[in-house]
Automatic annotation (TrEMBL):
Residues 21-256 form the DUF7702 domain. Keywords: Membrane, Transmembrane, Transmembrane helix. The keyword Transmembrane helix applies. It comes from the Eukaryota. The chain crosses the membrane at residues 20-40, 60-78, 98-117, 138-161, 167-189, 201-222, 234-256. PANTHER family: INTEGRAL MEMBRANE PROTEIN, UNPLACED GENOMIC SCAFFOLD UM_SCAF_CONTIG_1.265, WHOLE GENOME SHOTGUN SEQUENCE. This is DUF7702 domain-containing protein.
Length: 284
């Protein structure tokens, strides 16, 4: 059943105690995530500063607060606050909640792109020092566009009850996500001899996040097309906690760790390379 057909029933029900507990947990967890990621990101921005604009404390704060993980945290806190604001939500609140559950997936995938790019700059300071080829940098930047378009199409299609838009967005999203998974797996193998040790380890951590991200993507699709138990407003609370909240926490934790490995905030930046067998034979 499409998500657009679930809202009318939801307005007749009150928010369950379990759903309210999940909302409280989201506010607490993502508030903590925001505090941690802003602190780490500020120190990374100040130390490495890969942007072409002049470095300043204000710019570091802005880049930290409005990072993709920061935006996800703010979306989750806002959507949970709406749920906690009333025990009998109207259709507008439930529509906004459903949209935020879907739109919140795009910052995660955008952060994957940005952390991959940072892995290519691991061990370097300042702008323009990536070890990726230009074509690879274009790919890592470029896949964010179809992801954004796909999620907007799927969400808008659900809101205005245009099934063709939902399907088109879902197809584009699935194809792009499969491409991204393949690209990360390829980088995990090929980057061993081109990136620093820290950069390669960062990519391996992103690779470890993919199974959890896959579950979150499946949950996104089930929100659109699955049975009523997947509805975030009044469906199964265990599914919302397990496939939604828990998966996002795992993915965010691994992405923040990957960025910290690629851009350590203390000690010397790791610029060692993993030497291939061919390079060892050449050296001998």
């Amino acid at each position: 059943m499409s998500s657009s057909h679930l809202l009318s029933r939801a307005t007749e029900d009150s928010i369950s105690a379990g759903k309210r507990n999940i909302a409280i947990a989201e506010v607490v967890i993502f508030s903590l995530i925001q505090i941690v990621q802003v602190s780490l990101r500020y120190m990374q921005e100040w130390r490495y500063w890969h942007h072409r604009k002049r470095k300043s404390p204000v710019r570091c704060v802005l880049y930290s607060w409005f990072s993709m993980v920061g935006l996800l945290s703010q979306i989750r806190i806002a959507s949970s606050a709406m749920i906690l604001s009333t025990s009998t939500p109207n259709e507008s609140i439930l529509t906004a909640e459903l949209s935020m559950q879907s739109v919140g997936l795009s910052p995660l995938l955008f952060e994957v792109s940005l952390v991959l790019l940072r892995c290519g700059e691991a061990g370097e300071f300042g702008p323009g020092n990536s070890k990726y080829t230009k074509a690879m940098r274009v790919l890592l930047h470029g896949f964010r566009f179809p992801i954004a378009v796909a999620i907007v199409l799927a969400v808008v299609g659900g809101i205005i009850k245009m099934h063709a838009l939902e399907v088109a967005g879902s197809i584009v999203f699935i194809v792009t996500f499969v491409f991204v998974c393949g690209l990360i797996a390829w980088l995990a193998v090929k980057s061993r001899t081109t990136l620093t040790l820290a950069g390669h380890h960062g990519i391996l951590l992103i690779l470890c996040a993919l199974p959890f991200l896959l579950v979150r993507v499946i949950y996104f699709l089930l929100l659109e097309y699955g049975p009523v138990k997947f509805n975030p407003g009044y469906g199964d609370v265990g599914i919302l906690a397990g496939m939604g909240l828990l998966m996002e926490v795992f993915v965010v934790s691994l992405l923040v760790t990957a960025r910290t490995v690629a851009e350590p905030i203390f000690g010397p930046a790791d610029i060692k390379h993993v030497v291939s067998h061919d390079e060892e034979r050449t050296g001998n």
